[in-house]
Design brief:
This protein has 312 residues and is of the alpha/beta class. 35% of the residues lie in helices and 14% in strands. α5 packs across α10. It is globular and about 55 Å long. It binds phosphoric acid mono(formamide)ester.
Length: 312
C-alpha cells in the first residue's frame, strides 16, 4: 500500500492503516541500512528543503540524513539565515521557496498551524517537524516504532506519559497515535500541566506516579517546556522532581521488563535521572536511531514509494 497523501501534517489526519504502513516501510529501511550501499534512488534529482525556524538537534539532523540516503539534494534553512528576520512573511517565504520547485519541504516552527499554512500555499509535499505545542507527528511515529521493536506490539501496551502534557506536541501526537493503534495511555503530572477534559481522547489521568508505575510497560518522560509557559504553573522544580522525576526510587515498583523513553532534549535530574536515562531499561538512543529510518520511510512514501520496491 502507498500513502496517498501530499503532506504529513499531523497524526490526527492518519488512519491506523497508514500508521502501520509507515512502520512496515521503516522496517524495510532498517534492512536497507544494513546493506553495504545504503542509498536508494527515490529522490535522485529532487530537492528537499529542511526549514527549521525553531531549534532542533535530533529531528533536523535525521531528516537531513534521511533525505541524503534517499539521494535528494538537501537545502538547510534556519530562521536566522532566512529573510524572515527582515520581516518577510511565512506566506511570502513559502511562495519564494515554491518557485525553486522542491519535492518536499520539512518545517519546524513555533506557531501552531504553520505546516498547514505551508501546505495550502505550496505544491510540494510538506512534513510537519513540530508546530508550536500542536503536533510532532514524526516523533510519535518513531516512538511507536521503538515501542513495537522493544516489546513486539503496540496494541494493549500500557504506556504512561509523565510530565508537562499541557505544552507538549510530542504528548499530543503520541496520544493520538497510541490510541489509534490500541495502546492504553495514562497521563501523569501535576494538575496545572495536564489539559482539562483530556480524557475525551480516550486516555486516563493520574497525579500520582507511584499509582501508575507498577502497571506500565512503557514510561515516557517529557521535559517541562519552559519556553511555552507564561504563568507560574509550578511551586518549585524541586517539588516537581520529587513527585515526577523517573529515578531508581520512583521506579522501584516498576515491572522488570519496563522500558523508559524520552523524546529529548532531556533535563537530567529534573524529569529523569542520569542513571535511568543511561541505564539498561532506556530506549532513548534507540529512539534517535529509529528517527532516521522512520523519516526515510515518510519521505519515501510521500514521494509515491511503496515498501515492496525495497525488497531485494
Ligand atoms: N525530540 C525532538 O524533537 O528533538 P529536537 O528538538 O532535538 O529535534
Amino acid at each position: 500500500m502507498a500513502i496517498n497523501r501530499k503532506d504529513l501534517l499531523g497524526i490526527a489526519d492518519l488512519s491506523a492503516d497508514e500508521i502501520s504502513e509507515i512502520l512496515s516501510t521503516a522496517d524495510a529501511f532498517k534492512e536497507v541500512m544494513q546493506r553495504p550501499i545504503r542509498k536508494v534512488p527515490t529522490l535522485r534529482g529532487k530537492t528537499v528543503i529542511n526549514f527549521f525556524v525553531e531549534a532542533s538537534t535530533r529531528t533536523r539532523t535525521s531528516f537531513e540524513l534521511a533525505a541524503k540516503y534517499l539521494s535528494a539534494d538537501v537545502v538547510n534553512m534556519s530562521a536566522s539565515s532566512s529573510s524572515l528576520v527582515k520581516g518577510e512573511t511565512l506566506v511570502d517565504t513559502a511562495l519564494t521557496l515554491q518557485a525553486l520547485n522542491p519535492r518536499v519541504l520539512i518545517i519546524r516552527h513555533n506557531a501552531p498551524g504553520s505546516a498547514h499554512l505551508m501546505a495550502s500555499t505550496m505544491q510540494c509535499s510538506i512534513v510537519n517537524a513540530g508546530d508550536g505545542q500542536r503536533e510532532h507527528p514524526t516523533q510519535a511515529l518513531l516512538d511507536l516504532f521503538t515501542m513495537r521493536e522493544a516489546t513486539g506490539r503496540i496494541e494493549g501496551l500500557n504506556v504512561a506519559i509523565v510530565g508537562d502534557i499541557l505544552h507538549s506536541r510530542v504528548a499530543r501526537s503520541n496520544i493520538l497515535a497510541l490510541t489509534k493503534m490500541g495502546a492504553k495511555v495514562t497521563l501523569v503530572g501535576p494538575k496545572t500541566l495536564i489539559p482539562p477534559f483530556i480524557e475525551a481522547y480516550g486516555v486516563k489521568v493520574s497525579h500520582d506516579l507511584a499509582d501508575v508505575v507498577p502497571q506500565a510497560d512503557i514510561i515516557m518522560a517529557l521535559r517541562i517546556q519552559w519556553e511555552r509557559i507564561q504563568e507560574n504553573l509550578l511551586p518549585s522544580i524541586r517539588e516537581y522532581s520529587t513527585r515526577f522525576c523517573l529515578n531508581e526510587k520512583t521506579l522501584k515498583h516498576a515491572k522488570k521488563t519496563v522500558k523508559i523513553m524520552h523524546p529529548g532534549p532531556m533535563n537530567r535530574g529534573v524529569e529523569i535521572s542520569p542513571a535511568v536515562a543511561d541505564g539498561p531499561r532506556s530506549l532513548i538512543t534507540d529512539q534517535v536511531r529509529n528517527g532516521l529510518i522512520v523519516r526515510m520511510a515518510i519521505l519515501f512514501l510521500l514521494s509515491g514509494g511503496h515498501h515492496g520496491e525495497l525488497e531485494n
